[in-house]
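Proteins fold. Shown next:

***
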Amino acid sequence: MRNLTTLATCMALAGCSYIPLYQRPEAPVASQWSQAEGQRRAADLTWRQAFPDPRLQALIEAALDNNRDMRIAVARVAEARAIYGIQKADTLPTLNLGASHAAARVPADLSTTGRASTMRRNDLNVALSAFELDFWGRVASLSEAARASYLASEEAQRAFRLSLITNVVDAYLAVKEAEERLTLAQTTLSTRAETRTMIDKRREAGLTGDLDYLAADSSYQTAQADVANLARQRALAQNFLDALVGVQKADWPAGRALAEQGIVNDLGAGVPSDVLIRRPDVLAAEERLKAANANIGAARAAFFPRISLTAALGFASRDLANLFDGGAWSYQPVLTLPLFDGGRTQANLDLAQVRKNIAVAEYEKTIQQAFREVADGLAARAALSEQLSAQVRLEATQSKRLMLAEARYREGLSSYLDVLDAQRELFAAQQGTIQIRRALLSANVQLYAALGGGGEGAGT
């Protein structure tokens, strides 16, 4: 009965834990967003559903497979998983099996009997090496901290994955914008070259003066400079996209124009408390907070005695046939009680508590950043939608203005400067439409990421 009582007491002590009770900090943000209306939830949409362009999907797949930073993030998860496995192994005893055979020959002149002899010895033993009886939960606390760190690395990897997807999408949109602006500039250059030729012929016929020709030539040279500048921007955008994707192919699927991208544009924000806990960066910050909380338990347990146990069971015999006829065993419990360490144990506890305070602040900062990103995305979507509508109307107006100016110039009712001014205004309006359309698409992409889209089941 005494032995059973002792065993029960040891088991009860082994279940002790000095980890503080974890409570999720209150989110330091407002309870609602403005402009949060929408029909679909980002968490319900895979990135394939959110970004239907076939070429873009192929680029995202390639980036997830080949991007070097993505490979590093995946390796970090494997590293954290291994560390957790090592730490968890400390909660279980380590058993070692050893076997040996030794033989030694003694020559006759060294033997006490005057005859040569051969000595043989066979050994077999099972040993338990310095296993800590975790009465105060120190080892368990370290294991829990390692587990939380592993989960944090997993969420950080998911956060990087989502960030990589959105960066590829945004880079692709930048390439499409540069391509469309370059195409427009090239078309404009061709048109202005024809206009310059036409005016030159009118000048030779005496129907117009040098001033109109010089104005037409100036307009042509400006368009030529725009083409060169936009070609440079397109090359830079393509280089950035290639670096993100990590591989180049000649047989990418055909892509879509900006106006045909079909990127999700009707996301609803919902309640902040529900959205924020789905974001992988917020979840990673919370797991790091849990790890810091568990380390406090380990630091507290360090004030109590440590009891470790070393034990062995062995057999020895001159003959293998008689190896198990006799055996020997030993065990050695060791108790270590900290008496004086210059304040190191207390300092470790203070350090653990300070690191938890840092983790709380980082968690709250992450939530505030996430809230701001969602709010910015909602505001940008609403404002850019109105701006694009106004810009399309402006482009239509400028197109009519140019047609009227050209007609008046042909009839001799106005100077070529009116035509030139209308050309510049139309070109600027057309370029502005492309830029604003791309900005609206990028805002929808960033909102999708800010709302925690592209989670599990989002494709590979």
In short: The longest strand covers residues 117-133. Residues 15-91+135-303+344-450 form a domain with the Outer membrane efflux proteins (OEP) fold (CATH 1.20.1600.10). Residues 306 and 336 are 5 Å apart (CA to CA).
